[in-house]
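So, read this over?
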Amino acid sequence: MESGVEVKKVDSQGRLILPADWREAELSENKELIIIKRKGYLKLIPKRRVDLTECFDKVDLGVESIESWKQFEKRFYEAGK
């Protein structure tokens, strides 16, 4: 897909045609877009499914291991005060 600027016409119902190469590259799995309205322009972002499991096992709790959950929970909540 090539980056660039294209001038498109909007029909009487407010529709426009998205470039085919962009549609193929960005809308392959899902045909939905997020449209952000700003003063003077629109921003189109392909809606993608987010894999939250990528964030698992990445929290540093400052301990090597948790031997007693009750004791850990008590220290955790005390530290938050």
Summary: DSSP finds two helices and two strands in the chain. The radius of gyration is 23 Å. Helices lie at 20-26, 69-79.
